[in-house]
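Request from the bench team (R.T.):
"We need a structural guess for the complex before ordering more adenosine-5'-triphosphate. Sequence and SMILES attached. Just send the tokens back."

Command: build protein-adenosine-5'-triphosphate structure.
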Amino acid sequence: MAVEGELAIETRGLRKTYRSVRGRRVGVEDLDLQVPVGGVHGFLGPNGSGKTTTIRMLLGLVRPDRGSATIFGHDVPRHLPDVVGRVGAIVESPTFFPAFSARANLRLLADGIGAPRERVDAVLDDVGLTGRAKDRYRTYSLGMKQRLAIAATLLKDPDLLIFDEPTNGLDPAGIHEIRRTMRDLGDQGKTVLVSSHILAEVEQVADTVSIVARGRLVASGRVADLISGQGGPAVRVVVAPDDAVIATSLLASRGIVARPEGDALVVEGADPAGVNRMLGEQGVWAREIAPLQVDLESVFLGLTQHETPGGRDHRGGRRRRRRDAEPPVGPAATAAATSSGTGRADGGEEI
Amino acid sequence: MRLLRVELRRLWMRRVTWGGLLLALVVAGLGVAGQIGSAQPPTDRQVAEAEAFYAEELERWEETGEQQVEQCEEAEAEAAADDPGADFGCDDMAPRLEYFLPPTVSFVPDADDREAAAFGLPPDRGESQDPRVAEIEQSVWTGWSGVGAAAGYAPAFLMLAFVVGVSFMTAERSTGALGMWLTFEPRRSRVYGSKALAAALGTVPLVVAGWAAVAGGIYTLHAVFGTVGTVTTEDWVEIGAFSVRLVGAGVLCAAVGTALGVLLRHAVAAVGAVAVVLWAGAAFGYPLGAAQRWTPTTNLTAWLEGGTAYGVALETRDESGMVTTTWTTEVVTGLQGGLYLLAVAAVLTLLAVVVFRRRDVA
Ligand SMILES: Nc1ncnc2c1ncn2[C@@H]1O[C@H](COP(=O)(O)OP(=O)(O)OP(=O)(O)O)[C@@H](O)[C@H]1O
Ligand SMILES: [Mg+2]
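Reply to R.T.: structure attached below.
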């Protein structure tokens, strides 16, 4: 079924601005996202980067200002009804009717899509809620609510599963279980899009990832490619403080760059054994030497470190334009200049 | 169709709906209980007391009656200088036994009552008497009667249908369950349609139960006390028509409820808005003059009772600066009332569909 190179999700120039009496706030800005069919795709970004907004747009819950999106080649939200039966989704913290039992809630949903009643019990069993199926949703713990939401997505037996922060509020066992569920679904040839601001959660299961910041795509691709894209192996070496300068020049004489980082040196493009030998030959002994893990975490932080959550208030839109027009004067202007000088955006400036 | 079935099921899974039904029955129960006193013919003790009073009054009348009539006629003559038609009823001043008996009401107003009730309307009779006014005055809804008392509770059932409709929409939005539902059925017009229809049709049992309980209860009461009166076939037809139109109004009220629930988002806002509109219509009813034709209450009454009337005072100033006030009675037909309710429901529903289709669901 999965054609090579076919996309489960594609967005082009997707944009969403939330308007309220207090001003405008950009949720997603010009997002180009591509999710291949099959496997687990991580959708990463810091808080407020627009992950949930993107998912809502894909599901037709909020309407984009601009841009287009497709799911399995169907334009959404226009042709969403044609494809919605193949999509199971949980968005942020999904909710059910608090006064109805879990089973009653799922039955309503199943009846809505004409799914057989047996399916309800089957999916409840899948997520381990059979014993609590008669309890009101109100009485559920956070983790149980999350499981019930996953059960709901499985009612349709979908080809695409969209999970927005699915492990929110789960205990370690629950997290592990969900990870396994996602992996299983991916291995069955289904497409799983899992959003998260926690890297560790995604790194272990995802085949491919997209990283967003400020509503834009900043990186995407296979996890392995993203990591190796950060330069080759690196080694972290700790030597006696007196030896640090000697060690640096020693390595430099062999054409190897070592930069200090705290009380350690980070040596790029070398392996631990090689570094140890070079230093040892000249009588400098390392107290500690270890390969540096270049993981997705550092890629992620490198790409998104200028983020401050909720720091994209566009309320100052008009004021900013005025400020652009007139050269700044006075202490306020100095502050503004400083902040842009350090790359710390004020208002809605670009990084 | 499938969606409608699901929504109907959900409607009757809700405690608000069952609570509404229960409340309708409680209101009906109170209505029946409140009628016990007046449906009952006077007890022997009451009759004995009344006879004693009557005898006393009759004695006094014997002594002072002539004098009273004289005074009355004098006052009448005085008033006649300004208004030639003045009638103080001086020839009918003698006490009667029924003045001292507790009033007894029959299930339908008797002929005397219907006649008497006509005096409640502004006295423009004579020159411009509209035959429709007479018809309204003769109807089963004019005057004091058991069925009239029952009809007084009908708006409560409509209000309950409205509130159930509001809450059916707002609860789903505020709990966030709407988002989940839309990921299963993204066609918003269908979603709205199924919800509005479910609320409109699903609340019919509530209105029917409430009305049947209060009307049936009061009838039974009168039957037990033997004070039903003479119910003509026309009366039964009128009561039947009222019942059918009440159900229709309930459907529209629930539809208005769902629409306002969407438009105003919060149940309190929707219920409050309607309460304010109704209150304003009632509080400023009379001074509104001709605008009374367009108040919700007037039109609802007109629809339910197959026509209603309201009075308008018309002030004219002649050359000498004298202001004369003439009263006219205006008729609002049942048809106008029905079209009015239909239009309100249709406009609000249309607006709600547009908003529901476009609004972001967070
Ligand atoms: N309903 C809303 N009204 C106004 N602004 C909103 C609304 N929903 C989201 N936003 C804003 O849009 C931006 C993106 O929010 P979004 O929820 O998509 O982020 P996210 O990536 O899902 O974050 P998180 O990791 O915290 O879940 C934020 O700045 C947020 O404040
Ligand atoms: Mg989110």
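Two things stood out. Chain A has a mean pLDDT of 80. The first helix of chain A runs from residue 51 to 58.
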